[in-house]
Amino acid sequence: MNDEKTSKQLRDALGISKPLLISHLRKLTNIGLLEYRVEFDEKRMIVRKYYKTKNIDLCMMEILEKIISEMEP
User: Residue 15's domain spans which residues?
Assistant: First the structure.
């Protein structure tokens, strides 16, 4: 997933329910594997989130830092 995708595009591609997808997206975002931007569609009056993967090298460093900080007393 190199380019941005909306949750609807991801749901359609993966064939899973919206609640399940949102749960996975939240977890992947929280651990630093995904990032998103928010855009307001004025015509339809809705907010869209566009998800994309983060730079893997930076992402791995962030994950390792989180693991290390959680292990510290």
Answer: 5-71
Asked if residue 32 lies in contact with residue 66, where contact means CB atoms within 8 angstroms, the answer is yes
Mean pLDDT, residues 50-68 taken together: 75
Helix and strand numbers (H, E) in the chain are 3, 3
18-30 vs 7-14: helix crossing angle, rounded to 10: 110
Total domains in the chain come to 1
- The DSSP output letter for 54 is P
Q: How far apart are CA 7 and CA 21, in angstroms?
A: 8
Reported as a single tens digit per residue, the pLDDT across 26-42 is 988 888 888 999 999 89
Q: What is the CATH number of the domain that holds 18?
A: 1.10.10.10
